[in-house]
Write a structure and sequence with these properties.
The chain is of the alpha/beta class. The protein folds into two domains: about 230 residues, 3-Layer(aba) Sandwich (Aspartate Aminotransferase, domain 2); about 120 residues, Aspartate Aminotransferase, domain 1, CATH 3.90.1150.10. It is about 45% helix and about 15% strand. The chain contains 16 helices and 15 strands. The longest helix is centred in the C-terminal third of the chain and has 23 residues. The chain is globular and about 60 Å long. It is found in: Cytoplasm. It is an enzyme of class 2 (transferase). Belongs to the SHMT family. Keywords: Amino-acid biosynthesis, Cytoplasm, One-carbon metabolism, Pyridoxal phosphate, Transferase. It comes from Actinomadura parmotrematis.
Length: about 425
C-alpha cells in the first residue's frame, strides 16, 4: 500500500485500520468472509480500467480481447461448479440479481411469493419497503411458531389460493435446510416460476454441505461472497430455456457494463471453490455452526428452530432480558462482530429487535474449529450478561482474550507484522 499511503494517507490509514480490525475480531456476521490473496489481486487489477458493455462476442466497446475470455471462464466455471445449464456473472450484487429475475418473468402488479422478512426472508422477495413490494403484489409465507421452520403446508395452500407468478425460496436468516424439491413441486402445481436465492449458502452448496437447488429451481440467484468466499458480486444460474430472458434482464434491462475486475475475481473464487479442500472447508463451516449453537444452547440461549443445519445461527434474546441492538453493540466493543436481527414473530421494532444473527464462514476461513466454539459461546454469554447488568467492565477483558487467540490464526491477504 505504499502508493496509496503516499497519495492519500488518510484513506490508507483507514484501510489499514480496517484490516487490523478484521484481524483482531471474531467475525461472525453471516454475510461476511475473508477472500484469498488471489481474489484480492484480481479485484484490484487493471481490469477496473475497462468498460465492456454487452456479452462476450457481442460487446458495444472495442478492446475486449482479454475481457471476453475472462468472462467466458467465469461462466464456464460457474456452470461446472453448480451443474447449471446457464450462468450470468454480470450482476453487480445480490439485490440487482434478484431484480433481474422480476424483470425477466413478471409484469408490474404480478404476484410474487416469498418468505416474510421478519421470518428470515430478504427485502427483495417482496417486502413492503423494497421496490419488489411496491411494484409487485406480495404474497408472504411464514415459519411455524412451534418449530421455527418454514411451514410447507402454508406455502402450498397460499400458492394454490393466490397463484403467484414467481415463488422465492431461500432468505437471509434461515438456519435450516431449504426443501428445494418441495418448493419445486408447489411451483409446478401452481404454474409459477421457482427462484432459489442461495446467497448465504452458495459455498455450502458448492462444497456439498447443503443440497443444491439446480434441477429443482428454474432460476438460482446468489452473491459471490459470503460462504462462496469470492468478491462482492453476484450470479444468476438458470435452465437453458430461461437463459435468454435472464441475460436480457441483466443487460440491457438493468445494467450497463459489467465490473470486469469483479468478474475476474469471481472466476478465481469459482476455481478455488472447485478444489477438494473447499468441500472440506464447507463442511467445517457447518460443523462449527452446530458446535457453536450447541454451546449457546447449553448456556440457556433460545435458538430459532432449535439449532442450525448450515452456517447461520439465529438467537432470540428475550429470555435473557436484553434486546439485540445493545447486545450487538456491546459484543462489537468486546471483539465479537455480529448483527442484531429480528426473530420470527418478534414483538420489537426492526431497528431494535430481539435477536442476534451470527455465522461461522469467516472464523472457519481463519482456521478456528469446533474446539474453539464453546469458548466463543462463553465470551458471548459474558458480554450479554454484562449488558443485562449494565456492566461494561467485561468487554475489555473479552476483547483482549480474543486478540490473544486470533494472533495465532493468520488472516488471508494481510499480516499484522
Amino acid at each position: 500500500m505504499s502508493r496509496l499511503q503516499a497519495e492519500d494517507p488518510q484513506i490508507a490509514g483507514l484501510v489499514q485500520d480496517e484490516a487490523r480490525r478484521q484481524f483482531e475480531k471474531i467475525r461472525l456476521i453471516a454475510s461476511e468472509n475473508y477472500v484469498s490473496p488471489a481474489v484480492l489481486e484480481a479485484t484490484g487489477s487493471v481490469l477496473t480500467n475497462k468498460y465492456s458493455e454487452g456479452y462476450a462476442g457481442r460487446r458495444y466497446y472495442e478492446g475486449q480481447q482479454n475481457v471476453d475470455p475472462i468472462e467466458l471462464l467465469a461462466v464456464e466455471r460457474a456452470r461446472d461448479l453448480f451443474g447449471a445449464e446457464h450462468a450470468n456473472v454480470q450482476p453487480y450484487s445480490g439485490s440487482p440479481a434478484n431484480l433481474a429475475v422480476y424483470l425477466a418473468f413478471l409484469d408490474p402488479g404480478d404476484k410474487v411469493m416469498g418468505l416474510s422478512l421478519p421470518m428470515g426472508g430478504h427485502l427483495t422477495h417482496g417486502w413492503s419497503v423494497s421496490a419488489t413490494g411496491k411494484w409487485f403484489t406480495p404474497v408472504r409465507y411464514e415459519v411455524r411458531a412451534d418449530t421455527g421452520r418454514i411451514d410447507m403446508d402454508q406455502v402450498r395452500d397460499l400458492a394454490l389460493k393466490e397463484r403467484p407468478k414467481l415463488i422465492w425460496c431461500g432468505g437471509t436468516a434461515v438456519p435450516r435446510t431449504i426443501d428445494f424439491p418441495a418448493f419445486a413441486e408447489i411451483a409446478r402445481e401452481t404454474g409459477a416460476v421457482l427462484a432459489a436465492d442461495i446467497a448465504h449458502i452458495a459455498g455450502l452448496v458448492a462444497g456439498g454441505a447443503h443440497p443444491s437447488p439446480v434441477g429443482h429451481a428454474e432460476v438460482v440467484t446468489t452473491t459471490t461472497h459470503k460462504t462462496l468466499r469470492g468478491p462482492r458480486g453476484a450470479m444468476i444460474l438458470s435452465t437453458a430455456e430461461r437463459a435468454a430472458a435472464v441475460d436480457k434482464a441483466v443487460f440491457p434491462g438493468l445494467q450497463g457494463g459489467p465490473h470486469d475486475h469483479t468478474t475476474a475475481a469471481i472466476a478465481v473464487a469459482l476455481k478455488e471453490a472447485a478444489a477438494p479442500e473447499f468441500a472440506a472447508y464447507a463442511h467445517r463451516i457447518v460443523a462449527n455452526a452446530r458446535a457453536l449453537a450447541a454451546a449457546l444452547a447449553e448456556r440457556g440461549y433460545d435458538l430459532v428452530s432449535g439449532g442450525t443445519d448450515n452456517h447461520l445461527v439465529l438467537i432470540d434474546l428475550t429470555s435473557k432480558g436484553v434486546a439485540g441492538k445493545p447486545a450487538a453493540q456491546a459484543l462489537d466493543r468486546a471483539g465479537v462482530e455480529l448483527n442484531y436481527n429480528a426473530v420470527p414473530f418478534d414483538p420489537r421494532k426492526p431497528f431494535d429487535p430481539s435477536g442476534l444473527r451470527l455465522g461461522t464462514a469467516a472464523i472457519t476461513t481463519r482456521g478456528l474449529g469446533e474446539e474453539q466454539m464453546p469458548r466463543i459461546a462463553a465470551w458471548i454469554d459474558a458480554v450479554v450478561a454484562g449488558v443485562a447488568k449494565e456492566d461494561r467492565a467485561v468487554e475489555a477483558r473479552v476483547a483482549a482474550e480474543i486478540r490473544e487467540l486470533l494472533a495465532g490464526y493468520p488472516m488471508p491477504g494481510w499480516s499484522a507484522a
